[in-house]
């Protein structure tokens, strides 16, 4: 089967949905989600909020400075300034769409937005919807997309690979022509052609054994873009959130940084506060600093976790600011208003990704990358808290403007693309290869490419990932594809991109900390890696 759209958007989190809503209404859009539209994105699970200069005592320059500082001198100032300065307008846009941001009555009796605080921010600047900002955001955007006549939502459809002019052997600049998509229920693969294709598939944090992310964060967009010929940047900067709940039944449950923003303190098992030993900003230091400090203390003491204590705040305060976190902790037997809760760091955010410019364009004509899939230059070596949702919104809008111009100059024509060829594959006879390798990739990344790295650990990871990639490639070449196999193939490739990038960086900067080069070099530079042409090309 084959279908044509003006624009295909692969991914339906904040980035994909925002792009769909900003594109002109005369364009026909196909919006893909590999599972259900509402709850399977990282966006849905976002807690703390969206950073934006909204307080009259706050300034764009301060937000820019905080972002650059957190990013350890590696953020691109143009991308940072563009994002920061877009924020008030985008928050206004969301409010108009009906986003239920939390409000409070100020001293003047007016009900204004409540702004919370998170690590690395010098002001209260994080606008939120209680402690479930992502759920409110995803719901608001999904409701609007479902009302849009020009958007066809295609659920349970996983993009497998991009179709490019180069892959079809055409001469001239490489252009994205569409994508192959696996319909999960029927197992059929069909081709979608489009004038513009946007990758908005989220991050790759599932590459680690412990993560705050939902299952779909397998780096699909980054892997597809790489296979199609795009450069990727700064993949070594994988962000570990300092505080995920430590409990066998609390798979991936995040305790928002806003808990520390509202006075929560990190404690050792003996009750001692320790963050001021590591940074003068103590518990509100940027994430790389806090996660590394926790890792250091856990290893020093041989303890399984540290503790987060906000019990000095009243039950009423905790319940009103963190209703979902309070409820979940209570279900698991912890009373936040009475006792510290156990926490550990977990992989949370992919700072690097597909290299893009300020219009979200990639190296391939007609191909855009947005949100956590992209490396826009905003996050540098460490993302500032709550800058991610903002980046999704800001760059989706920029991409929409650019796509509108491109497609008005060159209106897309439906074109015939080759059908998916599965004539040489059979049904899998050993699914265990997929599950085994899935666990192996994630465990090796956790053990060898985690918060603290060394040359030796990276070399071990590198040789193991090559073996795994060969095995996965061989399996992929012989058996019919499934969504698990697609994700495994992508996850293993992204693991390799992370390892290769980490090996290239001979310094410690932001989230990349190595015992072999503990200092930062005098000059900061991006790690860019370029795909080699494939043998059959
Ligand atoms: P996602 O929201 O992850 O959406 C990706 C979409 O792509 C999904 O719909 C998925 O189904 C689809 N997809 C993936 N691969 C394919 C494929 N091959 N084919 C078809 N579809 C595909 N950031 C903040 O700024 N503030 C916060 O408070 C905050 N809190 C967070 C809390 C948690 C627990 C987590 C996990 C993250 C948090 N973040 C926060 C980070 C932020 O939520 C994400 O970076 C952001 O939501 C990413 O949005 P996205 O649109 O790029 O991707
Ligand atoms: C959180 O609420 O701590 C997550 C915020 C973020 O990842 O930006």
Give a description of the structure:
Helices cover 36% and strands 18% of the residues. The chain has 537 residues and is an alpha/beta fold. The protein has 3 domains: 294 residues, FAD/NAD(P)-binding domain, CATH 3.50.50; 105 residues, Succinate dehydrogenase/fumarate reductase flavoprotein, catalytic domain (Flavocytochrome C3, Chain A, domain 1, Alpha-Beta Complex); 85 residues, Fumarate reductase/succinate dehydrogenase flavoprotein-like, C-terminal domain (Methane Monooxygenase Hydroxylase, Chain G, domain 1, Up-down Bundle), CATH 1.20.58. Strands 1, 2, 8, 9, 10, 11 and 18 form a 7-stranded mixed β-sheet that branches. Strands 19-17-12-22 form a 4-stranded mixed β-sheet, with helices on one face. Helix 6 crosses helix 14 and helix 9 crosses helix 10. It starts with a strand and ends in an 8-residue tail after the last strand. The structure holds flavin-adenine dinucleotide (FAD) and succinic acid. Succinic acid (SIN) binds next to helix 7.
Tell me briefly what this model is.
With 537 residues, this protein is α/β, with parallel strands linked by helices. The protein is 36% helix and 18% strand.
């Amino acid at each position: 089967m084959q279908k044509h759209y003006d624009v295909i958007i692969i991914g339906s989190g904040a980035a994909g949905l925002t792009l769909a809503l900003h594109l002109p209404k005369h364009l026909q859009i196909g919006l893909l989600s590999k599972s259900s539209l509402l709850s399977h994105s990282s966006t849905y699970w976002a807690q703390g909020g969206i950073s934006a200069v909204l307080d009259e005592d706050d300034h764009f320059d301060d937000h820019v400075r905080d972002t650059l500082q957190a990013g350890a001198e590696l953020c691109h100032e143009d991308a940072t300034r563009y994002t920061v300065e877009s924020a008030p307008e985008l928050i206004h846009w969301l409010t108009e769409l009906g986003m239920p941001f939390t409000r409070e009555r100020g001293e003047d009796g007016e009900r204004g937005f409540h702004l919370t605080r998170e690590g690395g921010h010098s002001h209260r600047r994080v606008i939120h919807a209680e402690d479930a900002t992502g759920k409110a955001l995803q719901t608001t955007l999904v409701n609007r997309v479902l009302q849009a006549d020009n958007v066809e939502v295609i659920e349970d459809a996983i993009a497998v690979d991009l179709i490019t002019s180069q892959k079809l052997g055409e001469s001239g600049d490489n252009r994205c022509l569409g994508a192959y998509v696996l319909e999960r229920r029927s197992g059929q693969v069909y081709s979608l052609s489009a004038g513009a294709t946007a990758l908005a598939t989220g991050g790759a944090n599932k590459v680690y054994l412990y993560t705050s992310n939902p299952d779909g964060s397998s780096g699909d967009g980054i892997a597809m873009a790489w296979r199609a010929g795009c450069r990727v940047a700064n993949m070594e900067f994988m962000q570990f959130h300092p505080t995920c709940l430590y409990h066998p039944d609390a798979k991936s449950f995040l305790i928002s940084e806003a808990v520390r923003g509202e006075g929560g303190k990190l404690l050792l098992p003996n009750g001692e506060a320790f963050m001021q030993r590591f940074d003068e900003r103590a518990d509100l230091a940027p994430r790389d600093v806090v996660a590394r400090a926790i890792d250091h203390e856990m290893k020093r003491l041989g303890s399984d976790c540290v503790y987060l204590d906000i019990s000095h705040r009243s039950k009423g305060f905790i319940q009103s600011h963190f209703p979902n976190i309070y409820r979940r902790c209570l279900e698991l037997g912890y009373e936040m208003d009475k006792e510290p809760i156990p926490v550990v760091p977990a992989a949370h955010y992919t700072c690097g990704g597909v290299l893009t410019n300020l219009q979200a364009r990639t190296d391939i004509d007609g191909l855009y990358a947005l949100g956590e899939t992209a490396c826009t230059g905003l996050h540098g070596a460490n993302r500032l808290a709550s800058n991610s949702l903002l980046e999704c919104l800001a760059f989706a809008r920029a991409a929409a403007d650019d796509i509108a111009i491109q497609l008005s100059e060159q209106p897309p024509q439906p074109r015939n693309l080759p059908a998916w060829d599965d004539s040489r594959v059979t049904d899998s006879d050993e699914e265990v290869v997929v599950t085994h390798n899935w666990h192996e990739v994630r465990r090796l990344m956790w053990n060898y490419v985690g918060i603290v790295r060394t040359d030796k650990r990276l070399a071990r990871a590198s040789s193991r990932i090559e073996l795994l990639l060969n095995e996965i490639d061989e399996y992929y070449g012989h058996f019919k594809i499934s969504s698990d196999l697609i994700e495994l193939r992508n996850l293993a490739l992204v693991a390799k991109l992370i390892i290769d990038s980490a090996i290239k960086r001979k310094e410690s900067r932001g989230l990349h900390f190595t015992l072999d080069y503990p200092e930062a070099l005098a000059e900061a530079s991006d790690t860019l890696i370029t795909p080699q042409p494939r043998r059959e090309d």
